[in-house]
Design goal:
With 215 residues, the chain is an alpha+beta fold. The protein contains six helices and seven strands; from the N terminus they run βααααβααβββββ. It folds into two domains: 120 residues, no CATH class; 84 residues, OB fold (Dihydrolipoamide Acetyltransferase, E2P).
């Protein structure tokens, strides 16, 4: 028989489970920790768990629900709707969810985290986009002070896309095969491979490096 739960309570419980599992989503038991879905379902069914859902979780749940719904509206206006976000917001629009929906709801805090990170990257990147200029000339070898804006692992390339800026607010991009080649802040050296306008970042001028070393 299908069980029904308050959507707000389910999201608040998902937040508590997410925090308990060190802000990651577990699908199976790992190091003695239960999957997020099981933690949420056990708690909602009155079987208890390794946490207590309190007013803080309930307040945060209100914010996450509103944030994800607003994100969905923006994606709809841009005609770039993410399918999973669509599923999530469709559930969040209801006062109650069923037990079969817990697996999706358990992802709500993680999904909000991911979109908030993207928002922060866009906000920081926007500060540089208008004023960024190309550094040096193609094939020049340069050494610069570098501050990371974003790193993303690209599975198809089996490496990290590293995006940041130098001390003069010029945007820099390079590929890193391993994490130790990803500079958070400090000096890097490399050879200028290309100068290009990035259509995904307001056509900002970006200097592309290769053979990068973290100094």
């Amino acid at each position: 028989m299908k069980k029904m739960y308050s959507t707000d309570n389910a999201v608040a419980t998902a937040i508590a489970a997410y925090q308990h599992n060190n802000r990651i989503i577990l699908r199976t038991i790992e190091n003695g920790k239960l999957p997020n879905r099981q933690l949420v379902e056990d708690y909602l069914d009155g079987r208890g768990g390794p946490f207590i859902v309190n007013d803080f979780h309930c307040k945060e749940a209100e914010g996450i629900i509103q944030y994800l719904q607003q994100t969905m509206v923006m994606q709809t206006l841009q005609n770039k709707v993410d399918r999973f976000l669509g599923q999530m917001t469709e559930l969040l629009a209801n006062q109650e969810i069923s037990n079969k929906d817990i697996g999706i709801i358990a992802w709500a805090p993680h999904l909000a985290d991911q979109y908030q990170k993207k928002d922060r990257v866009r906000e920081v990147s926007a500060r540089f986009e208008r004023h960024s200029r190309y550094v040096g000339h193609v094939r020049d070898k340069i050494t610069i002070d570098f501050t990371l804006i974003e790193k993303r692992y690209i599975k198809s390339m089996d490496c990290w896309a590293v995006y940041g800026a130098d001390n003069d607010n010029n945007l820099i991009f390079y590929w890193a095969k391993t994490l130790d080649k990803v500079c958070e802040t400090g000096q890097i050296s490399g050879r200028i491979k290309d100068h290009r306008e990035d259509e995904y970042r307001g056509n900002a001028r970006v200097t592309v490096l290769n053979y990068v070393r973290v100094l």
